[in-house]
Amino acid sequence: MSSGVFAWTRRRVVGATAAIxxxxxAACAAPSQRSEDRPKELPARSxxxxxxxxxxxxxxxxxxxxxxxxxxxxxxxxxxxxxxDIFNKLATALAAGTVPDLSVVNRQCGQPFIRKNAFVxxxxxxxxDRKTAEELTHFAPAxxxxxxxxxxxYAIPTTNESIVVWYNEDLLRxxxxxxxxxxEDDPQxxxxxxxxxxxxxxxxxxxQDREVFGLWxxxxxxxTAWGNLVYSNGGRIITDDGAKLTLSEPPAVEAIQWAxxxxxxxxxQPHLATEKAAPNRTLFQQGRLAMLIxxxxxxxxxxxxxxxxxxxxxxxxxxxxxxxxxxxxxIVFNALGLPALREGKADAAWQYLTVFVTKDAQQFITDExxxxxxxxxxxxxxxxxxxxxxxxxxxxxxxxxxGYGKPQLASPYLWxxxxxxxxxxxxxxxxxxxxxxxxxxxxxxxxxNQRLAAAGAPQR
Length: 460
Fold this sequence. Notes:
By secondary structure, the protein is mainly alpha-helical.
């Protein structure tokens, strides 16, 4: 499993048919098959299919997709259930042999399940189904890579989640600062140094109750914070095989030191306690935070049902800046996935997935989920609607960021809570200036790698 993006080219996906060459799916017999050899048509709604969603809002999107599935496969009777604490519940269900047929997973949860042989390998199905394989060529490679192991796809991407820089454009223009979306693709001009210079000029006050903080570069969250800096600086978070954490390597140390310095050296970012009392989204909505690195889903704190009042200032967004030393940029790309459970009804689940990958089904996700669907052809109408009803802004930055996404931190050897526990415990000490960056990262690596070794990860 590569730590970079697995290259799902059109030739690679469609060409899998020749590489595997299995027999046709029962429900999709080849045209050359004799009529007496074809399976009899199943009665309508005779095959129940259970799908687990994370929440009522997720269920609402799947419920919109259900008629498309049942129209194409009348024998399926799809039941979407909300499973609270879905990842732990799925692990319990697997142990008890009471799994659903399909379930939403994230990469952190999915990789250990793949190692435990809990998910259906989709490659044999793709080898037989050129139409579905063709649909997958419209999905971002980073999304496919998130649910791939040993060059085999185990889940259809449900969402794309890219990271960008959101900023208060009114504050920038008052300081005569050119909005970064106007030069976001220039690696000589839009760098960490540029963003820090902007943050200093936008900062208002010195105490934690100041009028404006210049920047939020993130603290604890790998996806929306330091992970993007590490990748952009040429660093790694974990080895390609998920067997060893690598945060104490120089590029990662340098990147996280830069983020810590925005608090204690440059004094442009809120302290950890300040952000806990007033989250970054609150500070931004109040006009007290000028810029922040956040996910595309942050837009729903600016407009939509959660914030019907909207935002009383002009905001905008840009792709993240290039690392000053490397002149490169990468984001931590997250993609939920929809696998078929091996102990469920695999053929019926595959039939559901052949509809789920289509543009019509994925459009419901892009329009209603909170993050875009995996299918790139759903983005044009979404962009025309200002990302679903927002102010006019540079939302295309979100789509462009898909192209340099790298995987969310995960390992096939440890569950998410075990893998992330040292990070969650020690990183706050680093960001509170209680522990030197290198020392803290070495401690995180040491503790995590001990856990990985105990779980069977190969040590080299």
